[in-house]
Design a protein that fits this description.
- The complex is a heterodimer.
- Helix content of chain A is about 0%, strand content about 50%.
- By secondary structure, chain A is an all-beta fold.
- The radius of gyration of chain A is 13 Å and the shape is globular.
- The N and C termini of chain A lie far apart (about 35 Å).
- In chain B, the strands form two sheets. In chain B, strands 2, 4, 5, 9, 10 and 11 form a six-stranded mixed sheet that branches. Chain B has a five-stranded antiparallel sheet with strand order 1-3-8-7-6, with no helix packed on it.
- The model of chain B has no long low-confidence stretch (mean pLDDT about 90).
- In chain B, strand 7 and strand 8 form a beta hairpin.
- Classes of the chains: A mainly beta, B mainly beta.
- Chains A and B meet through strand 6 of A and strand 5 of B.
Chain lengths: ~110, ~110
């Protein structure tokens, strides 16, 4: 089974803190993604990566950055956390999520910024 | 603007009943379509892909209507375990996963 593991299920941070969210997948997938999910807004794509050291902005990249130094690991970074970044963050991976592919999600990291 | 619209519900349905819900999408050039299921406080998981000819998987049937730009999900003989949020997902981009647009979900509650 594909396993996508997010390092922290629950985090509480203070405004202005730097936050790292780590994601590791064990199926040698090329593609990795970071989404956030908020009530009434659904899932929104923050950043994605199709290869090591490659990153592309999604729909809402402002206030975030990412790092993909190894194929299996994709990190989301909040340089200076703000209260409007309180959310559920979901990492996903896929072999190829085009017409017939499938996204595999981690269990999510619920971040609260005070 | 790329949009995927779903009735948020909740749909309250007695066990054993048949329930159906639709999802509309804004981009007529959309190429691929999916239903994902998300249990409370869990991650989304692929339920089924939706093909032009429609497809069936046990009690679940998905249909695509390109002319009217909607997809549907029908659940027959509903079970308590079907209670979840169902996310409509449409690829309105160039085919890569960055083109996936998620609906906000339809909340289904199966009642005993």
């Amino acid at each position: 089974d594909v396993k996508v593991t997010q390092s922290s299920r629950y985090l509480v941070k203070r405004t202005g803190e730097k936050v790292f969210l780590e994601c590791v997948q064990d199926m040698d997938h090329e593609n990795m993604f970071w989404y956030r999910q908020d009530p009434g807004l659904g899932l929104r794509l923050i950043y994605f990566s199709y290869d090591v050291k490659m990153k592309e902005k999604g729909d809402i990249p402002e206030g975030y950055s990412v790092s993909r130094e190894k194929k299996e690991r994709f990190s989301l970074i909040l340089e200076s956390a703000s209260t409007n970044q309180t959310s559920m963050y979901l990492c996903a991976s896929s072999l190829w999520a085009g017409a017939t592919g499938e996204l595999f999600f981690g269990e999510g990291s619920r971040l609260t910024v005070l | 603007r790329k949009e995927v619209e779903q009735d948020p519900g909740p749909f309250n349905v007695p066990e054993g009943a048949t329930v159906a819900f639709n999802c509309t999408y804004s981009n007529s050039a959309s190429q691929s379509f999916f239903w994902y299921r998300q249990d409370c406080r869990k991650e989304p998981k692929l339920l089924m892909s939706v093909y032009s000819s429609g497809n069936e998987d046990g009690r679940f049937t998905a249909q695509l209507n390109r002319a009217s730009q909607y997809i549907s999900l029908l659940i027959r003989d509903s079970k308590l375990s079907d209670s979840a949020t169902y996310l409509c997902v449409v690829n309105m981009g160039g085919g890569g996963a960055d083109g996936l647009t998620f609906g906000k979900g339809t909340h289904l509650i199966i009642q005993p």
